[in-house]
């Protein structure tokens, strides 16, 4: 009941895209501005006549709240911000006072788009690590840039290794960043009303996880709970208490691809998709000999106080040529397709409803 009250008071902010009924077509050039309905031979995906290029490896992107700006992150010490209408470079952000080597992997605009919080890797310019075959890694901060001036206006210390994910969330009217890291910890950062000043920070009590990859908040829980990807487990976390509620068994490299059809639950539930990395056992343990999979799950919420969440497997998405150890995955805004990239630059497009591959994007080298 408390979660229902919280969810009603703080409704989910996750889906703001146009519905199919609200979609429009520009009479001048026939451009459809609504959701993507079809990807097939008659309605193919096509490249825009624009490209975003850099001399570094690009590892992440973030859109501003209004969709007007796109920030790109990578292995250099710079963040580039692009105009999404013209794809012209608007500005480059760089910490001019940082004496060491920055690599920016991920970032998040604040709701006003005035600031950009960025995380990644910080390396000692004067010290080498034989184990990493790279410059020695230093404790990795979050850096808050003023988008207009380019200045670093905030620095949040807490993670000892690379930051892999940043999510912003409002819980009970308070602002938070949630980060994951290669140090194994998930950290909650309580921020001021303008997202600028750190109030306090706390890490999720764990002691088991080696690497935490990403988080996704559960709908209709008032942003109290989120699912985290940790090592070979899925972990359910309580944001309020900063504690692990439940850890689900490994779901990859353990069973063959399959489809299950559990009965529809009567109580609250949510759907989400995970991306697995299978064990490497070919070509000197560099390639998986079995197709990797994406898996559609249903998470059934408990209906009794202190009850258990139930994780149900609905469908697995795989293809004989889909051998990949890329961590990334995205779902289209209409909820119809999975876009799953591979190590060799291809992106497989799976239909969520049918499980079929409806397209393969081969434009990356």
From TrEMBL:
Entry keywords, A to Z: Repeat, WD repeat
Coiled-coil stretches noted in the UniProt entry, renumbered to this chain: none
Domain of life: Eukaryota
TM region positions: none
The keyword Repeat is annotated on this UniProt entry: yes
UniProt keyword annotation of Magnesium present: no
Protein name in the entry: WD40 repeat-like protein
InterPro entries hit by this protein: WD40/YVTN_repeat-like_dom_sf, WD40_repeat_dom_sf, WD40_rpt, WD_repeat_multifunction
Native species: Coemansia reversa (strain ATCC 12441 / NRRL 1564)
Lineage: Eukaryota, Fungi, Fungi incertae sedis, Zoopagomycota, Kickxellomycotina
